[in-house]
Amino acid sequence: MGLDEGKGRDGIVGMFDRTAATYDRIGPRMFSLFGERLVDLARLAPGDQVLDVAAGRGAVLFPAGKRVGPDGRAIGIDLSADMVRETAAEIEGAQWRHVSIRQMDAQELQFPDASFDRVLCGFSLWFFPQPHRALQEFRRVLKPGGRVGLTTWARECPFLRWCLPELATLLPPYILKAAVKPGGSRFDTPELLAEALGQAGFSDIRFRSEEEDFVYARDEEWWLSLWTHGMRSLFEQLEAPVLAQVKADLLRKAQALKQPDGIHSLFRALFAMGARPGNDFKGRDTA
Predict the structure, then answer these.
(1) CA-CA distance, 221 to 197, in Å (whole number)?
(2) How many folded domains does the chain comprise?
(3) Which residues in the chain come in under a pLDDT of 50?
(4) Residue 106 domain flag
(5) Is 241 among the domain residues?
(6) Which of 284, 128, 106, 125 lies closest to 201 in space, CA to CA?
(7) SS3 146
(8) Which of 83, 166, 236, 246 is most buried by a 10 A CB count?
(9) Contact present, 53 and 118 (Cβ < 8 Å)
(10) pTM of the model
(11) ∠ CA 194-191-276 to the nearest 5 degrees?
């Protein structure tokens, strides 16, 4: 089952505005861990110019800033004003002069051609109304020979393969029907990502899959963590009595994931890397 968490740009942006204060801040820092791995696999070097698209609360942006150092530059963009505000406050608190974030649409990047050595995007591609246009923009702002790095959830992600069917038995049919995106893609296999990256003009496309087990010590912590990412868009549609019943039923089902130290959620991420060919000088007008 594929969830359409992008039922219009304003809707999904509003949802991320509401979760900005707690995003990746309840329970294990799941996005931060995979963000560190994306930066590792992208092989950032001191002095690199890096763009982090859909930066959120800095899961990729902050390790990228540490990796490129003061001689480099790490810029994050996000369409959520609240995400930008929260992350900007952290940057200011850290007194980073070479790291910044601004509000911007991934499909209309306000940067000149060939501005960056790396463009990174963590767990966001399927949210964009026109993901192929966003990928073309990623290529446009990369320097020839520069590389793009993406993460998505793998189709065989153990937690999602457990959670989504369980939710399908609990949520009202009208929510499930609205959650399915006709003709959409979660970009959750190497084949789908290779096709999308190839169509956008990338070459030397490579993949890697990694799993990580996240442990939630308390049941309530696990439940609240579900509200800090895209799944929140489903719960917000429920009336209070229905939501309370869904919570009780889902927590009961989650006992199957419980071990002595808490509820275990095993996630599998898919990493994709591609290069802008060295002789590719196509700009915005010819993308």
Answers:
(1) 37
(2) 1
(3) 1-10, 281, 283-287
(4) yes
(5) no
(6) 284
(7) strand
(8) 83
(9) no
(10) 0.91
(11) 5
Strand locations in the chain, DSSP E? 49-53, 73-78, 99-103, 116-122, 142-153, 203-216, 258-259, 262-275
What is the rounded distance in angstroms from the CA atom of residue 221 to the CA atom of residue 15? 20
- What residue has token string 């940067």? 111
Residue labelled with tokens 């994306």 = 38
Per the domain annotation, does 260 fall within a domain? no
Find the helix packing angle between 81-94 and 9-19, rounded to 10°: 40
- Return the DSSP state at 95: T
263 CB contacts (<8 Å, ≥6 apart)? 215, 216, 219, 222, 254, 257
Rg value, the chain, Cα: 19
Tell me the residue type at 134. A
The pLDDT score that the predictor gives to residue 157 is 97
Buried b / exposed e along 205-226 (16+ C-beta atoms within 10 A): bebeeeeeebbbeebeebbebb
| Contacts (Cβ under 8 Å, ≥6 apart) of 127 | 5, 6, 12, 54, 230
What long-range pairs does 113-116 form, CB within 8 A, spacing at least 24? Answer: 113/140, 113/141, 113/281, 113/283, 113/284, 114/141, 114/142, 114/143, 114/144, 114/146, 114/281, 115/49, 115/51, 115/141, 115/142, 115/143, 116/49, 116/50, 116/51, 116/141, 116/142, 116/143, 116/146
> In one letter, which amino acid is 83?
M
| Distance, CA of 26 to chain centre | 17
Task: Classify residue 8 as left (phi > 0), alpha (psi -120 to 50) or beta.
Answer: left
Element at 247 (helix H, strand E): helix 240-254
Helix and strand totals (H; E) in the chain: 11, 8
pLDDT of res. 2: 29
Q: Would you state the structure tokens that stand for residue 233, as one six-digit string?
A: 């868009």
Burial zone of 112 (CB within 10 Å; 0-12 exposed, 13-18 middle, 19+ buried): exposed
The CATH code of the domain that includes 118 is 3.40.50.150
Q: Is residue 40 part of a domain?
A: yes
